[in-house]
Design brief:
By secondary structure, the protein is mainly alpha-helical. It has two domains: 132 residues, Cytochrome c-like domain (Cytochrome Bc1 Complex, Chain D, domain 2, Orthogonal Bundle), CATH 1.10.760; 128 residues, Cytochrome Bc1 Complex, Chain D, domain 2, CATH 1.10.760.10. The protein has a two-stranded antiparallel sheet with strand order 1-2.
């Protein structure tokens, strides 16, 4: 009897895996942590505002882990209340991205982590000043020596630690993932209809894989131009090719109900409106109200378990630590 039950379970598992493999979307699984000390160090750095000139802005300021990994602003606010040029993408599930930033100018999370620190419109520091600050904080010197084996702190170590922490910020357990794994009651009939429509009309051509996005660059406005006041050039600013103008990294749809406002310019606050705009400018399709509602119902099933952990207790500054310059 036990052998028979085991065979049935194995058969069910294989059938479920076969169904998942045939879908354009795959589930997200919990992160595997290999170096807890490095993750903890990266978490501290992610939350530490002393990596900014003002002593006020941290990575978490624009990628708030209490708000879906973004800041819920059209464009982020940086040093001296400067308004950034582009919407802050979520840091959640960013490990699945083909590249980082909307224009893909950073190839890895580690490369991305160093950008805001030295950007005069964001954290407004320099890498050398950031290192000089960390070197005056005994608690950090001790942690870097423990993790990297040397008291001398380098910017590569700083960005590596932040990136390793960010790689843990995945959101498994979404209702849709449970549905993919065979739980027929995980999502509503309306959401199921929305997913089928999502596939049928062609949304999965760009929004696929584990993150439902992040794996390609696409022109914003394939069928119909997208009207915006934003002057951001997109991918062409990196490649120098005019053909890449207004091409952006396809954003993840994971946790999309949490990461409003939408698009690179943060111009749209309502998820249904965003769906309708994308239908028109990317697919040349006008959705009926019930179709919009179905797709939105599907999209809300993509909200997974948000990262939870104890907030880091940051090591205190010393008398040598530079004073903040708000």
């Amino acid at each position: 009897m036990r052998m028979k039950l085991a065979l049935v379970a194995a058969s069910t598992l294989c059938a479920s895996m076969s169904v998942m493999a045939a879908e354009p979307v795959q589930p997200i699984y919990a992160a595997t942590i290999e170096d807890r000390d490095k993750v903890e160090l990266g978490k501290m750095l992610f939350f530490d505002p002393r990596l900014s000139q003002s002593g006020f802005i941290s990575c978490n300021s624009c990628h708030n882990l209490s708000m879906g990994g973004s800041d819920n602003l059209p464009t982020s606010i940086g040093h001296d209340w400067q308004l950034g040029p582009i919407n802050s993408p979520t840091v959640l599930n960013s490990k699945f991205n083909i590249a980082q930033f909307w224009d893909g100018r950073a190839a890895t999370l580690q490369e991305q982590a160093g950008g805001p620190i030295a950007n005069p419109g964001e954290m407004a520091f320099t890498h050398q000043l950031a290192l000089s600050t960390l070197e005056t904080i005994p608690g950090y010197v001790k942690m870097f020596e423990k993790v990297y084996g040397d008291e001398v702190i380098t910017i590569d170590e700083v960005t590596d630690a932040i990136a390793v922490f960010e790689e843990t910020l995945v959101t498994p357990g979404a209702p849709f993932d449970r549905s993919l794994m065979g739980d027929e009651n995980a999502i509503s009939m309306q959401a199921k209809a929305g997913y089928e429509l999502f596939k049928t009309v062609g949304c999965t051509a760009c929004h696929n894989g584990q993150a439902l996005g992040g794996s390609s660059f696409q022109k914003m406005g394939l069928v119909k131009p997208y009207e915006t006041d934003s002057e951001v050039a997109g991918r062409s600013a990196v490649t120098g090719n005019e053909i890449d103008r207004f091409s952006f990294k396809v954003p993840t749809l994971r946790n999309i109900e949490l990461t409003y406002p939408y698009f690179h310019d943060g111009a749209v606050w309502d998820l249904g409106e965003a769906v309708n705009i994308m239908g028109e400018i990317q697919l040349g399709r006008t959705f009926k109200p019930e179709e919009t509602d179905q797709i939105v119902a599907f999209l809300t099933t993509l909200t997974g378990q948000q990262p939870t952990f104890d907030l880091p207790i940051l090591p205190p500054s010393s008398a040598k630590t530079p004073k903040p310059q708000p």
